[in-house]
Amino acid sequence: EAGVAQSPRYKIIEKRQSVAFWCNPISGHATLYWYQQILGQGPKLLIQFQNNGVVDDSQLPKDRFSAERLKGVDSTLKIQPAKLEDSAVYLCASSHYTLGDSITDTQYFGPGTRLTVL
Amino acid sequence: GQQVMQIPQYQHVQEGEDFTTYCNSSTTLSNIQWYKQRPGGHPVFLIQLVKSGEVKKQKRLTFQFGEAKKNSSLHITATQTTDVGTYFCAGLMRLIFGTGTRLQVFP
Known about the structure:
The complex is a heterodimer. By secondary structure, chain A is an all-beta fold.
């Protein structure tokens, strides 16, 4: 089966500019995740969707970050305006299902988008 | 808030030596997942542990979930150069990745 697709793979912008990332999960996967991975650190969950509803966005900096998954398939993550500390790899992952807080199916990660903010 | 820490942060081993990384959570976890990330790559799922005290094996890899469901370990027997990468645990309740252990294997 096709994996998780992300675009673009690389993006360089100046601070205060806007940027958007796109993710296409594995077909049939209900749950979609966006992570931020700063160099040398583990992935940090930004937002988790179950179909087109938000399950967890507690660590999403909502003053500048937004995400949507309108039709329960593709998703976009936007940063507006970007700051220097937003430089990171943004990973999208999907899984078949999540049952509340207890069980999460295997997550399949996309290749990520490497964002550099100058 | 909930934290998931891993030790050691880095480990350099000679090929053939064993390797262990430990994952510790500040809160009880419903289950725990382990991932491997090769340099420049993305995390790849290895295994999920659900039951208290559970032990699972995948060839040379042995995973264990603590009795209190607050810690876990990954042990690699006789490391190979293909084992190079960063190993992350990820704990649920809210999905939180550990700090990772970077493994370097010298031939």
